[in-house]
Amino acid sequence: MTQKMNVESFNLDHTKVAAPFIRVADVKHLPAGDTLTKYDVRFCQPNAAHLEMPAVHSVEHSFAECVRNHSDAVIDFGPMGCQTGFYLIMVGEPDVPATCDLVETTLKDILTLDAVPAANTTQCGWGAHHSLEGAQAAARGMLAHRAEWEQVMA
């Protein structure tokens, strides 16, 4: 890397990480005293694997809906354009172990779903573009490596 980039993830050497993992990607201390923490919830090894878009879309819907059953601190859960993971934004100081527990609980919830939440034309901009099976396979794959989530670098 020749110069520091404005986007934090562009400064991460993607050739040195070992997915899946969960890491703190950014912390913002807001003027009113609140803190926002952005977590990189990486499902796939960058430049080696990725999630298919219907699975990404369905993980996004399912996780965003289910996680709020367990935490009022969640601000947003959104996909990475590279299709290797998601960003989870939460109110509060970084707490990777607690966030890992929250992600684990939420992924287990996804495994129990019989439909993707809000996967219809009334509630979603592309209601037909979902795969519950893909989302559940992604959740199972991530959960299979639960013990490794806090180890970011290979």
Strand content: 15-25%
CATH superfamily: S-ribosylhomocysteinase (LuxS)
CATH top level class name:
Alpha Beta
Counted by DSSP, the helix tally is 3
Termini distance? 19 Å
Q: How many strands appear in the DSSP assignment?
A: 4
Can you describe what's shown?
The chain is α+β, with helices and mostly antiparallel strands and 154 residues long. It has a single domain (14-144), classed as S-ribosylhomocysteinase (LuxS) (Gyrase A, domain 2, 2-Layer Sandwich), CATH 3.30.1360. Helices cover 29% and strands 19% of the residues. The protein is built from three helices and four strands, in the order ββαββαα. It has helices at 53-67, 96-112, 132-143; strands at 21-29, 35-42, 74-79, 85-91. Strands 1-2-4-3 form a four-stranded antiparallel β-sheet, with helices on one face. A hairpin with a 5-residue loop joins strand 1 and strand 2. Helix 1 packs across helix 2, helix 1 crosses helix 3 (132-143) and helix 2 crosses helix 3. The chain is globular, with a radius of gyration of 15 Å.
List the helices and strands and how they pair.
Layout: E1 21-29, E2 35-42, H1 53-67, E3 74-79, E4 85-91, H2 96-112, H3 132-143
Antiparallel strand pairs: 1-2, 2-4, 3-4
Helix pairs in contact: 1-2, 1-3, 2-3
Features:
154 residues; alpha+beta; Gyrase A, domain 2; 3 helices; 19% strand
How would you summarize what this structure contains?
By secondary structure, this protein is an alpha+beta fold.
